[in-house]
Amino acid sequence: MESVDLIYKGIYILVIFSITLLIATYSTYFERKIAAFIQDRVGPNRAGPMGLLQPLADAGKLFFKEDFIPARSSKALFILGPGIAMIVATMSSAVIPFGDMLLVGGREVFLQAIEVNIGVLYVFGVVSLGVYGLMIGGWASNNKFSLLGAIRAASQNISYELAMGLSLIAILMMTGSLSLREIAAQQAGFNWNIWYQPLGFIIFLVCAFAETNRTPFDLPESEAELIGGYHTEYGSMKLGMYLFAEYINIFVASAVMATLYFGAYNFPFMLELEAWLADATESAVTANNIVTLLGVGVMFAKIFLFIFFFMWVRWTLPRFRYDQLMKLGWQILIPLAILNIVLTGGAIVLKDYLF
Predict the structure, then answer these.
(1) Where exactly are the transmembrane stretches of this chain (predicted)?
(2) Which of 125, 206, 193 has its CA nearest to residue 164?
Protein backbone atom coordinates (compact mmCIF):
# COMPACT_ATOMS: atom_id res chain seq x y z
CA MET A 1 0.00 0.00 0.00
CA GLU A 2 1.38 3.41 -0.99
CA SER A 3 1.97 6.21 1.51
CA VAL A 4 -0.93 8.27 0.09
CA ASP A 5 -3.30 5.34 0.60
CA LEU A 6 -2.02 4.94 4.15
CA ILE A 7 -2.70 8.63 4.82
CA TYR A 8 -6.27 8.31 3.49
CA LYS A 9 -6.77 5.16 5.56
CA GLY A 10 -5.37 6.79 8.70
CA ILE A 11 -7.66 9.83 8.29
CA TYR A 12 -10.66 7.58 7.76
CA ILE A 13 -9.88 5.46 10.85
CA LEU A 14 -9.47 8.62 12.95
CA VAL A 15 -12.79 10.01 11.68
CA ILE A 16 -14.68 6.75 12.37
CA PHE A 17 -13.10 6.48 15.84
CA SER A 18 -14.16 10.06 16.63
CA ILE A 19 -17.69 9.51 15.29
CA THR A 20 -18.00 6.31 17.33
CA LEU A 21 -17.04 8.09 20.56
CA LEU A 22 -19.29 11.05 19.74
CA ILE A 23 -22.29 8.80 19.08
CA ALA A 24 -21.59 6.84 22.29
CA THR A 25 -21.37 10.11 24.24
CA TYR A 26 -24.59 11.59 22.89
CA SER A 27 -26.45 8.28 23.08
CA THR A 28 -26.60 8.92 26.83
CA TYR A 29 -28.31 12.26 26.17
CA PHE A 30 -30.83 10.88 23.72
CA GLU A 31 -31.57 7.90 25.94
CA ARG A 32 -32.45 10.22 28.80
CA LYS A 33 -34.54 12.41 26.50
CA ILE A 34 -36.41 9.40 25.08
CA ALA A 35 -36.99 8.05 28.60
CA ALA A 36 -38.28 11.45 29.68
CA PHE A 37 -40.66 11.61 26.69
CA ILE A 38 -42.03 8.12 27.38
CA GLN A 39 -42.47 8.91 31.09
CA ASP A 40 -43.91 12.40 30.42
CA ARG A 41 -40.92 14.25 31.87
CA VAL A 42 -38.58 16.94 30.50
CA GLY A 43 -35.20 15.24 30.75
CA PRO A 44 -31.81 17.05 30.76
CA ASN A 45 -32.40 20.78 30.13
CA ARG A 46 -29.88 22.73 32.22
CA ALA A 47 -26.42 22.25 30.68
CA GLY A 48 -26.47 24.21 27.43
CA PRO A 49 -29.44 24.82 25.11
CA MET A 50 -31.97 21.97 25.52
CA GLY A 51 -29.40 20.22 27.72
CA LEU A 52 -27.11 19.47 24.74
CA LEU A 53 -23.98 19.94 26.87
CA GLN A 54 -25.14 17.41 29.48
CA PRO A 55 -23.03 14.51 28.04
CA LEU A 56 -19.92 16.73 28.20
CA ALA A 57 -20.74 17.64 31.79
CA ASP A 58 -21.18 13.96 32.65
CA ALA A 59 -17.88 13.06 30.94
CA GLY A 60 -16.08 15.86 32.81
CA LYS A 61 -17.56 14.63 36.10
CA LEU A 62 -16.32 11.09 35.44
CA PHE A 63 -12.84 12.30 34.44
CA PHE A 64 -12.35 14.44 37.55
CA LYS A 65 -13.93 12.21 40.19
CA GLU A 66 -11.58 10.56 42.68
CA ASP A 67 -10.35 7.22 41.43
CA PHE A 68 -11.10 4.49 43.95
CA ILE A 69 -9.85 0.89 44.00
CA PRO A 70 -11.23 -1.47 46.70
CA ALA A 71 -8.57 -2.52 49.19
CA ARG A 72 -9.04 -6.30 48.74
CA SER A 73 -9.51 -6.28 44.98
CA SER A 74 -7.04 -7.66 42.43
CA LYS A 75 -5.77 -4.22 41.47
CA ALA A 76 -4.16 -5.02 38.09
CA LEU A 77 -7.19 -6.97 36.87
CA PHE A 78 -9.53 -4.36 38.34
CA ILE A 79 -7.93 -1.78 36.03
CA LEU A 80 -7.64 -4.20 33.09
CA GLY A 81 -11.36 -5.14 32.99
CA PRO A 82 -12.83 -1.83 31.73
CA GLY A 83 -9.81 -1.39 29.44
CA ILE A 84 -10.54 -4.67 27.68
CA ALA A 85 -14.25 -3.81 27.37
CA MET A 86 -13.47 -0.42 25.79
CA ILE A 87 -10.70 -1.59 23.44
CA VAL A 88 -12.72 -4.54 22.14
CA ALA A 89 -15.77 -2.32 21.57
CA THR A 90 -13.82 0.22 19.48
CA MET A 91 -12.09 -2.52 17.43
CA SER A 92 -15.32 -4.06 16.19
CA SER A 93 -16.28 -1.24 13.79
CA ALA A 94 -13.09 -1.61 11.72
CA VAL A 95 -14.60 -3.87 9.02
CA ILE A 96 -18.01 -2.18 8.68
CA PRO A 97 -18.49 -0.45 5.28
CA PHE A 98 -20.08 2.92 6.11
CA GLY A 99 -20.12 3.87 2.43
CA ASP A 100 -19.16 2.61 -0.99
CA MET A 101 -16.22 4.30 -2.72
CA LEU A 102 -15.02 7.88 -3.16
CA LEU A 103 -12.84 8.96 -6.09
CA VAL A 104 -10.22 11.36 -4.72
CA GLY A 105 -7.35 12.55 -6.88
CA GLY A 106 -7.78 9.65 -9.25
CA ARG A 107 -7.66 7.14 -6.41
CA GLU A 108 -10.39 4.83 -5.15
CA VAL A 109 -10.98 5.39 -1.43
CA PHE A 110 -13.26 2.78 0.13
CA LEU A 111 -15.14 3.98 3.20
CA GLN A 112 -14.09 0.97 5.26
CA ALA A 113 -11.14 0.88 7.65
CA ILE A 114 -10.11 -2.73 6.93
CA GLU A 115 -11.42 -5.07 4.25
CA VAL A 116 -11.00 -8.73 5.15
CA ASN A 117 -12.81 -11.58 3.44
CA ILE A 118 -13.94 -12.87 6.83
CA GLY A 119 -15.45 -9.61 8.08
CA VAL A 120 -18.49 -11.31 9.63
CA LEU A 121 -16.26 -13.67 11.61
CA TYR A 122 -14.05 -10.74 12.66
CA VAL A 123 -16.99 -8.82 14.14
CA PHE A 124 -18.39 -11.96 15.75
CA GLY A 125 -15.01 -12.92 17.24
CA VAL A 126 -14.08 -9.45 18.50
CA VAL A 127 -17.50 -8.79 20.07
CA SER A 128 -17.37 -12.14 21.87
CA LEU A 129 -14.12 -11.04 23.55
CA GLY A 130 -15.93 -8.21 25.31
CA VAL A 131 -17.31 -10.59 27.92
CA TYR A 132 -13.76 -11.08 29.23
CA GLY A 133 -13.73 -7.44 30.31
CA LEU A 134 -16.95 -7.98 32.26
CA MET A 135 -15.77 -11.26 33.79
CA ILE A 136 -12.39 -9.90 34.82
CA GLY A 137 -13.89 -6.71 36.29
CA GLY A 138 -16.58 -8.60 38.20
CA TRP A 139 -14.16 -11.17 39.62
CA ALA A 140 -11.39 -8.68 40.43
CA SER A 141 -13.79 -6.47 42.44
CA ASN A 142 -13.95 -9.09 45.23
CA ASN A 143 -17.65 -8.35 45.60
CA LYS A 144 -20.29 -11.09 45.50
CA PHE A 145 -22.78 -8.94 43.59
CA SER A 146 -20.12 -8.05 40.99
CA LEU A 147 -19.17 -11.72 40.63
CA LEU A 148 -22.81 -12.77 40.17
CA GLY A 149 -23.22 -10.11 37.49
CA ALA A 150 -20.07 -11.29 35.72
CA ILE A 151 -21.23 -14.94 35.78
CA ARG A 152 -24.60 -13.90 34.40
CA ALA A 153 -22.93 -11.89 31.64
CA ALA A 154 -20.72 -14.82 30.62
CA SER A 155 -23.53 -17.40 30.58
CA GLN A 156 -25.87 -14.99 28.77
CA ASN A 157 -23.31 -14.17 26.07
CA ILE A 158 -22.43 -17.83 25.50
CA SER A 159 -26.10 -18.78 25.23
CA TYR A 160 -27.11 -16.08 22.77
CA GLU A 161 -23.93 -16.18 20.67
CA LEU A 162 -24.98 -19.67 19.53
CA ALA A 163 -28.35 -18.48 18.20
CA MET A 164 -26.75 -15.37 16.69
CA GLY A 165 -24.12 -17.43 14.89
CA LEU A 166 -26.75 -19.84 13.55
CA SER A 167 -28.85 -16.92 12.29
CA LEU A 168 -25.83 -15.65 10.35
CA ILE A 169 -25.33 -19.00 8.60
CA ALA A 170 -28.51 -18.44 6.57
CA ILE A 171 -27.16 -15.07 5.36
CA LEU A 172 -23.86 -16.70 4.40
CA MET A 173 -25.71 -19.43 2.49
CA MET A 174 -27.55 -16.76 0.49
CA THR A 175 -24.63 -14.42 -0.21
CA GLY A 176 -21.80 -16.95 -0.45
CA SER A 177 -19.42 -14.54 1.27
CA LEU A 178 -18.11 -13.55 4.71
CA SER A 179 -17.02 -10.10 3.49
CA LEU A 180 -19.23 -7.29 4.78
CA ARG A 181 -18.31 -5.15 1.77
CA GLU A 182 -19.43 -7.86 -0.63
CA ILE A 183 -22.62 -8.55 1.33
CA ALA A 184 -23.42 -4.82 1.20
CA ALA A 185 -22.68 -4.63 -2.54
CA GLN A 186 -25.04 -7.53 -3.25
CA GLN A 187 -27.93 -5.52 -1.76
CA ALA A 188 -27.71 -2.73 -4.35
CA GLY A 189 -30.84 -0.67 -4.76
CA PHE A 190 -33.70 -2.22 -2.80
CA ASN A 191 -32.57 -5.85 -2.93
CA TRP A 192 -32.12 -6.02 0.84
CA ASN A 193 -31.64 -9.27 2.73
CA ILE A 194 -34.49 -8.47 5.13
CA TRP A 195 -36.97 -9.50 2.38
CA TYR A 196 -35.41 -12.99 2.26
CA GLN A 197 -34.43 -13.44 5.92
CA PRO A 198 -37.13 -11.92 8.17
CA LEU A 199 -36.90 -14.77 10.70
CA GLY A 200 -33.10 -14.63 10.73
CA PHE A 201 -33.23 -10.87 11.35
CA ILE A 202 -35.64 -11.22 14.29
CA ILE A 203 -33.37 -13.86 15.86
CA PHE A 204 -30.29 -11.68 15.30
CA LEU A 205 -32.06 -8.63 16.74
CA VAL A 206 -33.09 -10.44 19.94
CA CYS A 207 -29.56 -11.84 20.34
CA ALA A 208 -28.12 -8.34 19.80
CA PHE A 209 -30.15 -7.10 22.79
CA ALA A 210 -28.79 -9.97 24.88
CA GLU A 211 -25.18 -9.47 23.70
CA THR A 212 -25.25 -5.77 24.60
CA ASN A 213 -26.86 -6.48 28.01
CA ARG A 214 -29.80 -4.20 27.24
CA THR A 215 -33.30 -4.43 28.69
CA PRO A 216 -35.09 -6.85 28.74
CA PHE A 217 -31.78 -8.78 28.92
CA ASP A 218 -29.93 -6.58 31.44
CA LEU A 219 -29.65 -9.36 34.05
CA PRO A 220 -25.86 -8.87 34.50
CA GLU A 221 -26.39 -5.35 35.91
CA SER A 222 -29.96 -5.42 37.24
CA GLU A 223 -30.00 -2.72 39.92
CA ALA A 224 -32.92 -4.21 41.85
CA GLU A 225 -30.99 -7.30 42.88
CA LEU A 226 -27.28 -6.83 42.01
CA ILE A 227 -26.87 -3.07 42.70
CA GLY A 228 -25.30 -2.59 39.26
CA GLY A 229 -23.76 -6.03 38.74
CA TYR A 230 -20.23 -6.39 37.43
CA HIS A 231 -19.40 -2.65 37.77
CA THR A 232 -20.80 -2.20 41.31
CA GLU A 233 -17.35 -1.32 42.74
CA TYR A 234 -16.32 0.92 39.84
CA GLY A 235 -16.30 4.70 39.80
CA SER A 236 -14.61 7.57 37.99
CA MET A 237 -13.61 6.96 34.36
CA LYS A 238 -13.29 3.18 34.80
CA LEU A 239 -17.06 3.10 35.27
CA GLY A 240 -17.32 5.51 32.34
CA MET A 241 -15.40 3.08 30.14
CA TYR A 242 -17.86 0.29 30.91
CA LEU A 243 -20.78 2.58 30.11
CA PHE A 244 -19.11 3.88 26.94
CA ALA A 245 -18.37 0.33 25.82
CA GLU A 246 -22.05 -0.58 26.15
CA TYR A 247 -23.13 2.31 23.94
CA ILE A 248 -20.38 1.62 21.41
CA ASN A 249 -21.56 -2.00 21.25
CA ILE A 250 -25.10 -0.75 20.56
CA PHE A 251 -23.72 1.41 17.72
CA VAL A 252 -21.76 -1.51 16.27
CA ALA A 253 -24.71 -3.93 16.59
CA SER A 254 -26.92 -1.39 14.79
CA ALA A 255 -24.32 -0.97 12.03
CA VAL A 256 -23.98 -4.74 11.58
CA MET A 257 -27.76 -5.23 11.36
CA ALA A 258 -28.02 -2.38 8.86
CA THR A 259 -25.24 -3.96 6.77
CA LEU A 260 -26.42 -7.56 6.86
CA TYR A 261 -30.17 -7.07 6.52
CA PHE A 262 -31.04 -3.51 5.45
CA GLY A 263 -28.74 -2.85 2.51
CA ALA A 264 -26.01 -0.93 4.37
CA TYR A 265 -25.42 2.29 2.39
CA ASN A 266 -27.72 1.22 -0.48
CA PHE A 267 -31.05 2.95 -1.04
CA PRO A 268 -33.81 2.66 -3.67
CA PHE A 269 -33.05 4.11 -7.12
CA MET A 270 -29.41 4.62 -6.16
CA LEU A 271 -28.03 3.52 -9.54
CA GLU A 272 -30.63 5.56 -11.46
CA LEU A 273 -29.74 8.65 -9.41
CA GLU A 274 -26.04 8.19 -10.14
CA ALA A 275 -26.74 7.90 -13.89
CA TRP A 276 -28.92 11.05 -13.81
CA LEU A 277 -26.27 13.00 -11.87
CA ALA A 278 -23.58 11.88 -14.31
CA ASP A 279 -25.64 13.32 -17.17
CA ALA A 280 -26.52 16.49 -15.25
CA THR A 281 -22.98 17.26 -14.06
CA GLU A 282 -21.20 15.71 -17.05
CA SER A 283 -18.82 14.10 -14.58
CA ALA A 284 -18.99 10.46 -13.53
CA VAL A 285 -16.59 11.20 -10.65
CA THR A 286 -18.80 13.93 -9.19
CA ALA A 287 -21.91 11.76 -9.57
CA ASN A 288 -20.19 8.81 -7.86
CA ASN A 289 -18.99 10.94 -4.95
CA ILE A 290 -22.39 12.60 -4.41
CA VAL A 291 -24.21 9.24 -4.40
CA THR A 292 -21.55 7.73 -2.10
CA LEU A 293 -21.94 10.57 0.42
CA LEU A 294 -25.73 10.20 0.24
CA GLY A 295 -25.20 6.50 0.93
CA VAL A 296 -23.16 7.35 4.03
CA GLY A 297 -26.06 9.51 5.25
CA VAL A 298 -28.51 6.66 4.57
CA MET A 299 -26.27 4.21 6.45
CA PHE A 300 -26.13 6.43 9.54
CA ALA A 301 -29.89 7.06 9.34
CA LYS A 302 -30.46 3.29 9.51
CA ILE A 303 -28.01 3.03 12.42
CA PHE A 304 -29.75 5.82 14.34
CA LEU A 305 -33.13 4.14 13.82
CA PHE A 306 -31.79 0.94 15.37
CA ILE A 307 -30.23 2.86 18.27
CA PHE A 308 -33.59 4.54 18.87
CA PHE A 309 -35.22 1.09 18.84
CA PHE A 310 -32.73 -0.15 21.48
CA MET A 311 -33.65 2.82 23.69
CA TRP A 312 -37.39 2.57 23.08
CA VAL A 313 -37.41 -1.10 24.09
CA ARG A 314 -35.46 -0.35 27.27
CA TRP A 315 -38.14 2.02 28.53
CA THR A 316 -41.05 -0.10 27.33
CA LEU A 317 -40.46 -3.75 28.29
CA PRO A 318 -39.82 -5.24 31.76
CA ARG A 319 -36.80 -7.37 32.56
CA PHE A 320 -36.92 -11.15 32.08
CA ARG A 321 -36.35 -13.53 34.96
CA TYR A 322 -33.09 -15.42 34.61
CA ASP A 323 -34.77 -18.76 33.90
CA GLN A 324 -36.90 -17.10 31.21
CA LEU A 325 -33.79 -15.63 29.63
CA MET A 326 -32.06 -19.01 29.46
CA LYS A 327 -35.19 -20.74 28.18
CA LEU A 328 -35.61 -18.20 25.38
CA GLY A 329 -32.00 -18.65 24.29
CA TRP A 330 -31.71 -22.44 24.40
CA GLN A 331 -35.25 -23.73 23.80
CA ILE A 332 -36.67 -21.14 21.41
CA LEU A 333 -34.05 -19.12 19.53
CA ILE A 334 -31.59 -21.93 18.76
CA PRO A 335 -34.29 -24.28 17.35
CA LEU A 336 -35.73 -21.37 15.35
CA ALA A 337 -32.29 -20.53 13.96
CA ILE A 338 -31.77 -24.16 12.91
CA LEU A 339 -35.22 -24.17 11.28
CA ASN A 340 -34.29 -20.97 9.43
CA ILE A 341 -31.13 -22.66 8.07
CA VAL A 342 -33.17 -25.62 6.83
CA LEU A 343 -35.76 -23.36 5.19
CA THR A 344 -33.05 -21.25 3.56
CA GLY A 345 -31.27 -24.34 2.24
CA GLY A 346 -34.55 -25.71 0.86
CA ALA A 347 -35.33 -22.39 -0.84
CA ILE A 348 -31.86 -22.28 -2.45
CA VAL A 349 -32.16 -25.86 -3.73
CA LEU A 350 -35.68 -25.19 -5.04
CA LYS A 351 -34.54 -22.03 -6.80
CA ASP A 352 -31.64 -23.87 -8.49
CA TYR A 353 -33.99 -26.68 -9.54
CA LEU A 354 -36.65 -24.37 -11.00
CA PHE A 355 -34.39 -21.76 -12.59
Answers:
(1) 6-29, 77-99, 119-141, 162-180, 192-210, 247-270, 290-312, 332-350
(2) 206
The pLDDT tens digits of the residues spanning 132-164 come to: 888 898 889 888 888 888 888 888 988 999 999
- Checking DSSP bridges between strand 107-110 and strand 101-104, what pairing results, if any? antiparallel
Q: Which of 211, 205, 193 is nearest to 312 (CA)?
A: 205
How many separate domains does the chain show? 1
Residues of the domain holding 144 = 3-354
How many CB atoms lie under 10 A from the CB of residue 329? 23
Between CA 346 and CA 63 the distance in angstroms is: 55
